[in-house]
Design a protein that fits this description.
single chain, mainly beta, 2 domains, 6-stranded antiparallel sheet, two-stranded antiparallel sheet, 10 strands
Length: 160
């Protein structure tokens, strides 16, 4: 049961007021339904689901004699290629991409404070991370989603 089935049923057997409005004394209203093109999507890949995805990180703590420490860190995140829709067409394919983040942190004695500098998306990668196709009423345009541009900053923290 759906709105479409109700409308189709009403058009096939309209009430008297609707017949008078369309100037049809008896029978169905003059309309036609055009079916879409059937497509078999059986066996296709799950959309927006990469085959591979992994993350790796490394950091090293350099301790100083005064109780302070310095910690550099780098992280790599990789997302493998995938298809963006259920139709698995070439136009739906999204290439794999990687993001590298890095930071350095200076810690005070007994970790009472820290000062951190960081860079996200170190290589300023602008890869496509996903896409979505609009419907026919809007011209079947494709929205693409990309990685955030390189960002950098500093952070500080204190323990009381």
């Amino acid at each position: 049961y759906s709105l479409c089935s109700v409308l189709a049923s009403t058009a096939a057997n309209p009430p008297a007021a609707l017949r008078a409005l369309f100037g049809v004394p008896t029978g169905a209203l003059p309309y036609s339904v055009i079916d879409g093109v059937g497509v078999n999507i059986r066996g296709g890949k799950l959309p927006q689901a990469p085959t591979y995805k992994f993350s790796a990180g490394a950091q090293y703590t350099i301790a100083f004699g005064n109780g302070m420490s310095f910690v550099p860190r780098v992280d790599l995140n990789y997302t493998g290629g995938f298809t963006a829709s259920i139709f698995n067409q070439l136009v739906d394919r999204v290439q794999g991409y990687e993001v590298i983040n890095a930071q350095v942190q200076l810690n005070g004695a007994e970790d009472r404070w820290f000062l951190r500098g960081f860079v996200q998306n170190l290589t300023n990668n602008d890869s496509i991370t996903g896409q979505a196709v609009g419907d026919q009423s809007s011209g079947l345009f494709t929205n693409i989603f990309t990685i955030d541009p390189r960002r950098y900053g500093i952070a500080a923290g204190f323990k009381f």
